[in-house]
Amino acid sequence: MSTPSQTVGPYLSIGLPWPDGPTVVEEGTPGAVWIRGVITDGAGARVPDAMIETWQADPDGRFDHPDDPRGARPGFRGFGRCPTNDDGEYGILTLLPGALPGEASHINVSVFARGLLHRVVTRIYFPDNAADPVLASVPADRRGTLIATRTEDGYRFDVRLQGEGETVFFDV
Amino acid sequence: MTAHTSSSESGLILPRYRRDPEGTHPPLDSLGYKSTGLRHPQQPLVLLPHKLTEITGPLLGPGRIGELDNDLTRQHPQEPQGQRIIVHGRLLDGDGRPVPNSLIEIWQANAGGRYKHMWDNWPCPVDPYFDGVGRTLTDSEGRYEFTTIKPGAYPWKNHDNAWRPAHIHFSVFGMAFTQRLVTQMYFPDDPLFFQDPIFNSVPDEKARQRMVSSFDMSRTVPEWALAFEFDIVLRGREATPFENEEDEDE
To answer: Which of A55, A91, A102, B161 has the largest count of CB atoms under 10 Å?
Structure first.
């Protein structure tokens, strides 16, 4: 009975971006990292009319949400939103999430764009993660698409919507 | 907590969200809509179990809504051109429960069918008094209401003489990451439905009709505004917890 999904279309940027969308935490927050990347299509072209959203736990692995059975931990927005620029780039300033019970530290990512009739969902993992059941469920030769790489001011996580090196997307 | 829960291997009791039946949402690869061609993933999606990150989600809104954000006709010194309409409805989950205090964002073209976006340059005037952007929070019963103008249809280059039916873009969060939804609200009996590959990308006819608002005489305002009703239904919580599916997810 759910309402069907439809594309955000080419003009999402009039309605969805917020001035503070990309900053999950304020600039200058101790320990904050920039997660940056490029979204590309099946021809390798950069996608200038996409938007990514991130959702993650706080550094202790907790959520400000009533359904976290360990109790809501207020104070950390956990949500980031950034449209891509003309060069297909995005950037999110955040704190690294803590590990969760039975799961390695990760950030959930939704990608919206013209040409995507439904969001696609992926996950950002970090290079020093060891074991994770979701990562283990992904074919070994594709796991690397889910692991961010270290940069000077944080991490890099590119999204390839299609083709060689296609990012692993999840059925939520 | 609700009764709709399941145990995870970590011993935490988590609510679960039902996955939507096949045909509810458009396939990512939809031949008629050309922009899907180079943008849809070709590898199979990997099943993501519903754990803490999926059953929680951003609860945004309070502090993000300005006084006139739900009235798109009063955001400038003068009123925009076009047919004034009230768009209202409820945000519900798949079991009919209201989703309260939840952020709804909309964006749309003006009465002539033009968006206030630098890339939209088809020959139809921009309305200086219409931004086409609104936000609101659902109330305690999941209700929302916008005042706006009816958007126009507009041409696009998908195929020869292609026109998008009039629509308003809706973005909703619900309570959990699993419920996040972006959709489009259409108007009843639009003659352009038959040739629109985005509307028709939804395989199931009944599901398509859930994107079409209904004219609501009871909410029109005499000598002021017409009204349309549009309920948005998000995924419901799993009614029957069982460990087997959890095992399959792993």
So the answer is: A55
Domains and CATH numbers, chain A: 33-160 (2.60.130.10)
Strand-pair partners of A33: A94
CB–CB of B229/B220 below 8 Å?
no
Which of A:28-47 have CB within 8 Å of B?
A: 41-43, 45, 47
CA–CA distance, B15 with B158 (Å, rounded to integer): 42
Query: Which tens digits make up the pLDDT trace of B90-132?
Result: 999 999 999 999 999 999 999 999 999 999 999 999 999 999 9
H helical segments located in B76-209: 205-209
Query: How far does chain B reach from its first CA to its final CA, in angstroms?
Result: 23
Is there a catalytic annotation at residue B167?
A: yes
Establish whether B164 is a catalytic residue: yes
- Judge if ipTM > 0.90: yes
Q: Which residue of B has its CA nearest to A50?
A: B39
Q: How far apart are CA B206 and CA B167, in angstroms?
A: 18
pLDDT at B247 over 50: no
